[in-house]
Design goal:
Layout (H helix, E strand, L loop, with lengths): L1 H9 L2 H4 L1 H15 L5 H25 L9
């Protein structure tokens, strides 16, 4: 829908990136093989969400477009 596309367009590139999806898939495979802990993966995801929320609040407060830096 037009509203759905508008929401997706507003998301930071890191959430729409095939590279991000690939990195998550690799991490999930490593968890499956016991090479990465689930807790470690989830800590990284929580940190990403915290940065995204802080970024969103900052952008909303300034009401101007910014680029989110994933790291």
């Amino acid at each position: 829908s037009p509203k759905g596309r508008m929401v997706i367009d507003k998301l930071p590139d890191v959430l729409k990136s095939p590279e991000t999806t690939a990195a998550w898939e690799i991490a999930l495979e490593q968890i499956e093989k016991g090479k990465l802990s689930y807790d470690g993966f989830m800590r990284e995801q929580v940190a990403l969400v915290e940065r995204l929320v802080a970024f969103g609040k900052d952008v909303a407060a300034k009401r101007e477009p910014h680029k989110f830096k994933s790291n």
